[in-house]
Amino acid sequence: MAIAEGVRKRSMPFMHGVLPLHRKQMPSDLLAGVTLAALGIPEVMGYAKIAGMPVITGLYTILIPIAVFALLGSSRHLVVGADSATAVILAAGLVGLASVGSPEYVALAGLAALVTGAVLIVARLIRLGFLADFLSRSVLIGFLTGVGIQVAMGQVGAMFGVPSGTGRTVRKFFGTLANLGQTNLTTLAVSVAVLVVILGSAKINKRIPGALIAIVGAIVVSWSRNLSADGVSTIGKVPGGLPSFGMPDVSWSDAGPLAATVGAMVLVILAQSAATSRAYAAKYEEQFSENEDLVGLGVANLAAGLSGAFVVNGSPTKTQMVDGAGGRSQISQLSTAFVVLIVLLFLTGPLQYLPNAVLASVVFLIGVELVDVDGMRGIWKVRKDEFAIAALTAAVVVSVGVEQGVILAIVLSVLDYVRRGYRPSMSLLSVGASGALHSSPVAEGTLAAPGLMVLRFAADLFYANANGFSTQVLELAATPGVTCICLDASGIADIDYSGWKTLKELRATLQQREVSFIFAEVLPEVRAEMDRYGITKAVGEDAFFDSVSEAIQSTETDANS
After folding, report:
1. Residues in domain STAS (predicted)?
2. CA-to-CA distance for 242 and 341, rounded, in angstroms?
3. How many angstroms separate the Cα of 468 from the Cα of each of 132, 439, 446, 458?
C-alpha cells in the first residue's frame, strides 16, 4: 500500500499500530473510535460488574491501557480493554479474598493486573508466546461458550430484582430461580425494555449503539420518575475525574494467593489476543509481531494496575466493532481514549441514577453472545471428537469454575495433540500409471517395486507412537516377498530418545530377518539427529535417498542386476 500521504517509514521501535498515517483514512479511523466509545462504554461497565469492580473502573480500562497498547503494540486492529473471559477469571480468583467491590478487593484486582503485566513482559523476554498455541480453536470456543453461559446465568437475579442464590454457578442459578416469586415488576420492566432497545437496534442496524441508548434512556427515566422509590436499585454515586495513579494499597505478599488466577488470565490473554491479531493481520495482509504485542499487553496491564483498573485483554468483540465501523489503525483506539476522557471529566454525575437491572441486562446479552452456537455446531459437523472436548470444557467452566476450565482446556488441547501423534496417518506409496506417486492404505500391502514397501509416516517419531510404528514396520516386513522397507520421512520433524531406541532395535530385528531398512526425504534437522544418534553409521550413507522415487529406482536397479 502506498504511504506517500503520510509517514514514509516506521523508524521508531513503537507506534507500529499507528504508523504509517494515511490522511484519507483518518476521518474513518476517528469516526470508528467514537463508535467504539459509544458501543464499548456500556460493555466495559458490564465487564466491571462481572469482575466485581466498581462500574467506573470499566471506563478506566479503555482510557490509559487502550492508549498504551495503541502506542506499543504491533497490531493495527487489536483493541485492548476489559474483557469477559478475564473478568470472570478475576472474579473467581478474588472470591473469598475480599468483599466484592470493597477497597481491598479493588486493590487486589490492581495487584493482579500488575503481576499479569509483569508475567506478560517476562513471557516476551523468554519468548513464551508459543503457549498461546496450546489452546486450540475448538477448546477456546468451548471455554468462551462456558463463560457466556456462566455470565448470563449470574445476571438473572438483578434483572428480576430478586436476591441471587449462593454457591457455584448452577446452584446459585437454581437458588435465584427459587426467589422469582419476589420479583420486582418495575425492575423486570426496566430489564425487558433494555433488551428490547438493544436487540431492536441491532435488528435495524448493528452500528446503532443500542446499549448506549438504553443506558441514557434508563438514566433519564430513573431520574425523572424516581424509580428507586419503586424498589429499583441504582448503582449510586460514581466518582468523576481522572483515575488516581499509584501502587495498589496491598502488600506484594498478597500476590501468592493470586498466582493461579494470574496464570489462567495470562494464558487466556496469550491465546485470545494472538488469535484476534492474527485474524485481522491475515484479513488485511499485514504483518504483526506476537512478541511486540506481548510488550504492549504487558505494559497496558501495568497501566491498568497503577490507574485503579483491572486486567485488560485483547477483545475480539471490540476489535470487530472498530473494524465494522471502518477503523484500520490504532488511531481509532486513541480517539476512543479521548472520548472516554471527556466522559470521565464531565459526564459521570448522571450515572448514579442508572438502575443495576440495566447493567445486568447488558451483561446478560454479552454472555448470550459469547455462547458460540454456530461455532459449536460447526465443530460437531466436522469433528465429533473435538466437539466432545469443547463441550466438556464448557461444562467444567459452568459447573466447576473458570480457572479449572482454563486448566482443563490446556490439558485437553495437549492430550488431543498427543492423541493425534499417537495414531498418526500411515500409508504405503507406489508408482501409478502416470508415473506419479500415490498412496494407499497400509492394509492393502501395496508394493512400490519388487520386494519393496514404502511407508509414509506423517508425524514426529516420539515416545507415544514409537511402539505402534515399530509394530507396523515389522508387520509389513513379514509380508511374503518383502526384502526392503523404505521409510518416507518427509513428515517427521523430530525423533526423541524413545524414537531413536525404537529405530535402533527395529534395524537389528529387520537385519536378522534379512530385510533392508532405508530412508527417503529425511529433513536436514532430522538427519542431524540421526547422525548424532549413530543411526546413519549403523545403516550406512547409501541407505539415505533424496526422494522416494530415487529409492524405488535404486531398488529396481539392484533387483535387475
Report:
1. 450-555
2. 8
3. 30, 20, 20, 13
Q: Residue ranges of the domains in the chain? A: 26-417, 426-560
Strands (E), 474-520: 484-488, 516-520
User: pLDDT digit string (tens) for 251-310?
Assistant: 888 889 999 999 989 988 988 888 788 778 877 888 778 888 999 999 999 999 999 999
Say how far apart CA 321 and CA 335 lie, in whole Å.
14
Of 454, 521, 464, 453, residue with least CA distance to 493: 521
Query: What's the pTM value of the predicted model, to 2 decimals?
Result: 0.72
Say how far apart CA 81 and CA 274 lie, in whole Å.
15
Task: State the cell numbers at 319.
Answer: 476489535
Helices 84-94, 259-283: inter-axial angle, 10-degree rounding? 180
Rounded mean pLDDT, 215-224: 93
Residue that is written with C-alpha cell 489503525 in the block: 329
Those residues whose C-beta lies under 8 Å from the C-beta of residue 217, and which sit 6 or more positions away, are 193, 197
Name the 3-class secondary structure at 540.
coil
Cβ atoms of 311 and 86 within 8 Å: the answer is: yes
Q: Grid coordinates standing for 75?
A: 497490531
Instruction: Confirm if 308 and 110 have CB atoms less than 8 A apart.
Output: yes
- pLDDT number for residue 93: 92
Distances (CA, A) of 39 to 269, 317, 318: 22, 10, 8
Q: In whole angstroms, what is the distance from residue 314 CA to residue 311 CA?
A: 11
Confidence band for 13, pLDDT divided at 50, 70 and 90: low
* DSSP strand pairing (79-81 vs 313-315): antiparallel
Residues 6+ apart with CB under 8 A from 420: 459
Is residue 36 within 8 Å of 312, Cβ to Cβ?
A: no
- Measured CA to CA, the distance from residue 325 to residue 319 in angstroms comes to 10
| Whole-angstrom distance, CA of residue 91 vs CA of residue 261 | 9
